[in-house]
Amino acid sequence: xxxxxxxxxxxxxxxxxxxIGAGTPSRVLIERAAAAMADFVETExxxxxxxxxxxxxxxxxxxxxxxxxxxxxxRFLTQKGFPVSVCLYTTDKPGPEWQTQYDLCRKAGVDLxxxxxxxxxxxxxxxxxxxxxxxxxxxxxxxxxxxxxxxGKPVLALDVPSGIDATTGAVRGHAIRACATxxxxxxxxxxxxxxxNRYAGQIHCAPIGIDASPLEKEPxxxxxxxxxxxxFLPSRDPDSNKSTYGKILCVxxxxxxxxxxxLCARAALxxxxxxxxxxxxxxxxxxxxxxxxxxxxxxxxxxxxxxxxLQSALDFxxxxxxxxxxxxxxxxxRILSFLLQRVGDKPLVLDADAxxxxxxxxxxxxxxxxxxxxxxHPGEAARLLGTGVRDVTSDxxxxxxxxxxRTRAVCVLKNSVTLIGSQDDPARYLFCDGxxxxxxxxxxxxxxxxxxxxxxxxxxxxxxxxxxxLLHGKAGRLAEAQYGTDGVLASDVADRLGLAMRDLIDx
Length: 507
Description:
Blueprint: H1 9-21, H2 26-46, E1 57-61, H3 65-79, E2 84-88, H4 96-107, E3 111-113, E4 123-127, H5 139-151, E5 155-158, E6 180-184, H6 189-192, H7 196-200, E7 202-206, E8 220-223, H8 226-229, E9 247-251, H9 258-270, E10 275-281, H10 285-291, E11 296-300, H11 306-316, E12 319-322, H12 330-342, E13 348-350, H13 353-361, E14 372-374, H14 378-385, H15 389-394, H16 396-407, E15 410-413, E16 418-422, E17 425-431, H17 443-458, H18 462-487, H19 490-495, H20 497-506
Parallel strand pairs: 1-2, 1-4, 2-3, 4-5, 5-6, 6-7, 8-17, 9-10, 9-12, 10-11, 12-13, 13-14, 14-15
Antiparallel strand pairs: 15-16, 16-17
Helix pairs in contact: 2-3, 3-4, 9-17, 11-12, 13-14, 17-18, 18-20
């Protein structure tokens, strides 16, 4: 069964309206959401993860649909026997659904207040704003949120922590810090992207029958999960040979940067590629032959040798990875230009210096070859887009769309959370199971090598790129388990790719 898509705020609103228009009343959806949250609270309290059964629960309710969900949840919790009180924060006139839930709470004897009382409270439910936030929070609401955060009491957020942009993950002035968040119907991009993920705590999801099928032709994010991507990884045939699993050309390395070439080629081999050839300056020959004897080598000296030798190496390859440690020298620029003109339909992975060279080329670099994969981090993405790093990190979904629209390539936008997508496929992938152990020099070189191996073995596309990111993250986790978060080297990650693949196949 395919995982549910992860929705932006706008997509969630459209799916909600479609479901209501198709015949499910809004009140039914509100009560389903509230019942799911009440059950979640009961489960959490029974397990004593957040508070004992006899806790006094405070529900924070705004004036919108999220507040209506919160009021209904307060009523259900009261019926379950929990001591419950509600703090109402309403600055605008509530809608009819909110008023209905308010009236039902009064009839049920729920303790309703218009001010915040934290005495004796052991658990707080946040139903202030949900996905509907449209401006930064300030004033009295900001003060209320600060008081809740400063109280040190555990908070469970309904759908999205109040103050977090449900699409981008941005903090809109002030935001609730939750220990857990129950997303209603679908996960939201904003609780998975930084910094929103740091405010959401443990993330859970409760389907309530909202139909997102009308959104299927839109760009939709899916979680990069083992169970969803494992089928794209072919097993090795007992009757195969080295040519069966792809021949990778790593155009990498420069003077004083041989290590990047080693890491890229090593990762491609560890990820199952049958043959790997490194195209690199002559000064790296002895280093590479000693560090990675399993790789083939084509080295060049004088600039006039580049074209003929590179063409021969290109003829060998099923897939090309270019840029790791390449430098931004005139020779590097000529190499990239040659590949862009001659690679044809072969998959081409561009990373690191290749991306910086591409940025310097401007419009002359486009259109890119048809099967191009770009793997920029936020700085490289900003240069490709002619914008600032902050513009990229503050709204990564928008940055990914801009990148794919500008380049027409499959793009892997790398950060602590990685986004993968292209304009030719409505499926986007979001990978949020990485580790800060990967925040080391050389990790990108390893990922580029994995991408090359996967493109050669599994075919070009967004899902293959997502599979490469997933394997890279799994290998990082395995290395972290052995060396700790601080002690992992990029070579450790490369050397655990085989184990990561085995775990993926066996899962």
